[in-house]
Backbone:
């Protein structure tokens, strides 16, 4: 099964005065709401990726939403398979994909986590498929996400590295800056930290620069994502 882009929301909004309750648990009988930090999103051609995971083993997310600090288009990565639902399309962690329509914005990812594998039973398909099965057995995922979360210190400049496992190849990478605040950060706070990622061989090197606008009492995190290919060939 390969990751595909699943539409979550693409709604333009304005910065809320306070964090609003999301819809990540709507329709779920048992649900554990999980709120991530406020993720910085610059208005560039390249989207911002951020992964948020359910806290317990065996949990999957059955719903998701996002609080916005500006106009954004937000989607998430799902997995192929049927029927579409928790445990099939979704897993323990969700990768949010955000694009801003102005120079700087932000969002807070929200997950509604449920126990077990989800998915439930499946009824008989009304229209039988006419396509013949080509593969003898399901092929394993060809790629895997490797994510590293780092707490930034109160320093003007920092450098961090990340890499795939020894038997994997680095295909692509990205980095995101996030702020642990209850209320939406101001634009000056969102823009007070800059992270620049580059590839050096099979490693990712991220240089972080903090400006004078960075609040001293706010926890700032860096997330580095590596998309890795299984096997060296």
Residues:
């Amino acid at each position: 099964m390969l990751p595909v882009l699943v539409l979550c929301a693409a709604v333009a909004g304005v910065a809320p005065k306070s964090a609003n309750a999301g819809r990540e648990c709507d329709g779920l009988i048992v649900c554990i709401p999980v709120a991530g930090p406020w993720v910085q999103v610059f208005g560039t051609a390249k989207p911002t990726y951020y992964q948020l995971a359910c806290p317990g083993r065996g949990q999957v997310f059955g719903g998701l939403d996002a609080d916005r600090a500006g106009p954004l288009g937000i989607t998430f990565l799902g997995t192929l398979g049927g029927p579409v639902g928790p445990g099939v399309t979704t897993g323990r962690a969700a990768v949010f994909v955000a694009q801003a329509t102005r120079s700087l914005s932000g969002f807070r990812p929200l997950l509604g986590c449920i126990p077990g594998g989800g998915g439930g039973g499946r009824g008989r398909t009304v229209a039988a498929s006419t396509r013949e099965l080509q593969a003898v057995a399901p092929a394993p995922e060809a790629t895997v996400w490797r994510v590293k979360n780092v707490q930034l210190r109160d320093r003007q400049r920092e450098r961090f590295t990340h890499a795939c496992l020894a038997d994997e190849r680095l295909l692509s990478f990205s980095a995101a800056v996030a702020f642990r605040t209850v209320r939406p950060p101001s634009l000056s706070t969102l823009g007070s930290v800059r992270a620049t990622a580059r590839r050096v061989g099979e490693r990712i090197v991220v240089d972080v620069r903090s400006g004078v606008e960075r609040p001293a009492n706010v926890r700032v995190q860096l997330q580095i994502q590596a998309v890795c290919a299984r096997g060296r060939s």
